[in-house]
Amino acid sequence: MCQLMKARSSFTWNRLPTSHEGVDVSESERITIGLGVVDLGQIDRLIDKGLFATRSEFIRAAVRSHLGQYRDDVVQTGFKKSFVIGVMRLDAHDLEDSLSEGKVLDLHIVGGLTLGKDISPELARKAIRSISIYGSFHASDTVKAALQDRTK
Fold it and tell me: For the residues of 58-122, what is the DSSP string, one character each?
């Protein structure tokens, strides 16, 4: 019994960014958290009562609820321009369109940014002036290196 409780005190779950203004956010990132056995017992009790299907579901709901309390702080912290809460995916076509319109991108994201594998380091440097990200950033190693001095 003691070993079972100890095994339950470390728990891995998927963090799902919340959706914002109808944006479908289905990308998740795996993180590991440590919870006390009393907290886990209470969560398990709620699951047994049918209020939540899994521990992950409970923790995602708790995180979203807590983040909702700090929504204004998230929105106002360092963002004077428009930004994205959720997941943004850009490919070479998106960057080329932006350049053809004479726009260089300043990306401000709370959630996740994925730059497509078809984006060359040269195109990324031409099209992206800055990246400010609170969350995950996925791109090829060469593109990340090319944008390193523009990423906060």
Answer: HHHHHHHHHHHHTHHHHHHSS--S--EEEEEEE-HHHHHHHHHTT--EEEEEEEEEEE-TT--HH
Give the position of tokens 């203004």: 21
pLDDT tens across 63-97, in order? Answer: 888 888 877 666 554 433 557 888 899 999 999 99
Both tokens of 21, joined, read 């203004």
Buried b (16+ CB within 10 A) or exposed e, 80-112: eeebbbbbbebebebbeebeeeeeebebbbbbb
* CA 36 – CA 34 distance, rounded (Å): 7
* Cα angle: 75, vertex 79, 82; to 5 degrees: 85
Digit-coded pLDDT (tens) for 30-55: 888 888 889 988 999 999 999 999 99
Structure tokens at 72: 């204004």
Q: Look at residue 26 and give its three-state secondary structure.
A: coil
Domain chopping of the chain, boundaries: 2-69, 73-150
Find all residues with CB under 8 Å of 17, minimum gap 6, and list them. 25, 27, 85, 86, 87, 110, 111, 112, 135
Q: Is the pTM of this model over 0.85?
A: no
